[in-house]
Amino acid sequence: MSKTIGFIGLGTMGSPMAVNLAKAGHTVHGWNRSDGRSGPLLAAGRRAAAASIREAVREADVVITMLPDSPQVEEVSYGSDGILAHARRGALVIDMSTIAPQTSTELARKAAEQGIRVLDAPVAGGEAGAIDGLLSIMVGGEAADFEEAKPVFEALGRTIVHCGPHGIGQTVKAANQLILAVNIQACAEAVVFLEKSGVKLEAALDVLGGGLAGSHVLTRKKNNFLRRDYTPSFTMGLHSKDMGIVSDTARAIGAVLPLGSIAAQLIGSAVARGDADLDHSALLRGVELLSGYDGQ
């Protein structure tokens, strides 16, 4: 069934997601914190550019937020100009940003006081997954709200799982980012190990990808490693932010993450060296630096 959707955040991920919702037949009112991001949505049909959060959400059945971090989600959600002030009672807010689990649970609590329902539904799959509608969506919140939101999710992704109550979607996403960070670092180390040993890299990665060492990360990032192409599909800066969420959550629950802690430090080092806007496969640059190797 077609829904009216207020979409807040038309960035690298949000823009193609909003376009896919419009293509699926939903009416999408998009709003972005900065100007100049509504062109793709306007071209997709069954859509409108909103001049304010109020305009985007006041008639919406569903409000989706796709923003960089907790402060931005809080900024658009609270206050006299925020979502909770202008969304109608009974509306469903779906936050698809990657933020701290405690931020998600607090948003759900405050929204409930206004008669507004909330799901936390962070995604994995990067820009390519957003464009192709192949995202993996991990959802926290009430089961009935998840069932209602399925037609929306199905326009955006293929792996769609209700993981538990509020905040649990974000917890699963944090685990995803932990695995991803360690995997990229391991691949980067293998690249330098192979090249310094004189092995033909492309052939080696092909055979590794066909065995137990293969992974979706190795498949997706193979060309980044081969070409040293760090055009971002997901930036190092955002991954560093996510590893902060992993570290804070692990500390709060008493989970010890030795490899995760090292990966977080290596990503943080890359950001400090000026690589924040590069693809996270640029962890390879750090391994090259530590190895005294220029990638030639």
Share of helical residues: 40-55%
Tell me how many strands there are.
9
Poorly predicted ranges: none
Per DSSP, what share of the residues sits in E-state strands of 2 or more residues?
5-15%
Biggest sheet details: 6 strands, parallel
Global geometry:
globular
Radius of gyration: 20 Å
Class derived from helix and strand content: alpha/beta
Number of helices: 14
Would you kindly provide a written description of the structure presented here, covering whatever features stand out?
- This protein is an alpha/beta fold and 296 residues long.
- 54% of the residues lie in helices and 14% in strands.
- It has helices at 14-23, 39-44, 53-57, 70-77, 83-86, 101-113, 126-132, 143-154, 168-196, 201-209, 216-227, 236-253, 258-275, 283-291; strands spanning 4-8, 27-31, 47-49, 62-65, 92-95, 117-120, 123-124, 135-140, 157-164.
- The strands form two sheets. It has a six-stranded parallel β-sheet with strand order 3-2-1-4-5-6, sandwiched between helices. The protein has a three-stranded mixed β-sheet with strand order 7-8-9.
- β1, α1 (14-23) and β2 (27-31) form a beta-alpha-beta unit.
- α9 crosses α12 and α12 runs antiparallel to α13 (258-275).
- The protein is globular and about 65 Å long.
- The model has no long low-confidence stretch (mean pLDDT 94).
